[in-house]
Amino acid sequence: MTDTFKVACVQNCAEDDLAENIAIATQLTRDAAGTGAELICLPENFTCLEERDEHYLTRGFDAASHPALPHFRELAQSLGVYLVLGSLTIKTSPERVANRSYLITPDGALLREYDKIHLFDVRLKNGEMYKESNAVAPGNCAVIAELPWGRLGLSICYDVRFPQLYRLLAQAGADFIAIPAAFTHTTGMAHWHVLVRARAIETGCFVFAAGQCGTRSWGRKTYGHSLIVDPWGEVLADGGSEPGFIMADIAPSRVAEVRAMIPALLHDREIAPPG
Fold it and tell me: Is 91 part of the annotated catalytic residue set?
């Protein structure tokens, strides 16, 4: 591992115009690289957030034809950075898409991919209702990637409410965890900071959580507040509520330092279910 590296989280407000969203995300990524970021993380669905789930099927792309993939592979190569494409909706059949995260290397290669495991099917008191499983097929595999600075575990948005996934990633050697998101404003106000900090604290990992912000033309509002959190739970950067990017210097040695103070990953016990 190197002593330190710079990570950035891009924050945008994607609507249903794919070309415009790609252009905005590209410029924000260039801006982040221009300030020295070596690993740049983008939010969930950063190239397109549809009003209706069925639009992901009728207007979507499979992996071979999705225009964002070659574009951001070329961008990573031209900038010489690692990119975490928070997620793209990838058609896997006529009836289903995957909510898929991609990790791209500085030479433009696709290093790893991860399909969101936990799908956002909720009904809130204010009348907001979401049923991601209408269009999305869940993944079933945890994913870790080797980076020059350590190991990065991949996850997406609603996964953050399932600590067993993050425990598994940490036990498998993750030093950093990506949590790209398009958190609703309602749930974000109540839970976002607590959940992201908790995942960092319980795993002893750095967390890079790039989020979407803003209000769409049809009314959907996302929370923003992209976060970079250290293994002690300290917020190193918070993106607030407007488009842009945040950046922080990351010292990988901090992971071992925190885990030595509180070695909780060594203290797991088998527990019998309640009788």
Answer: no
Q: Which of 9, 13, 48, 157 is catalytic?
A: 157
Choice among 48, 91, 116, 213 that is catalytic = 116
Cα–Cα distance measured from residue 233 to residue 69, given in angstroms and rounded to the nearest whole number: 33
The string of pLDDT tens digits covering residues 240-249 is 999 999 999 9
**44 annotated active-site:** yes
Question: Considering the entire predicted model, what is its pTM?
Answer: 0.97
CATH architecture of 5-265: 4-Layer Sandwich (3.60)
Res. 55: pLDDT tops 60: yes
Catalytic residue among 38, 44, 113, 132: 44
| Beta pairing partners, 222 | 184, 214
Give domain limits for the chain.
Answer: 5-265
The answer, yes or no, to whether residue 2 has pLDDT greater than 70, is no
CB 10 within 8 A of CB 30: no
- E strand spans, 39-182: 39-41, 82-91, 97-104, 110-115, 121-123, 129-131, 143-147, 150-154, 176-178
pLDDT at 149 exceeding the cut of 70: yes
Residues 85-131 have pLDDT tens digits of 999 999 999 999 999 999 999 999 999 999 999 999 999 988 889 99
CB 39 within 8 A of CB 2: no
Closest CA to 222 of 100, 98, 86: 86
Burial 203-242 (b: 16+ CB within 10 A, else e): bbbbbbbbbbbbebeeebbbbbbbbbbbbebebbbbbebe
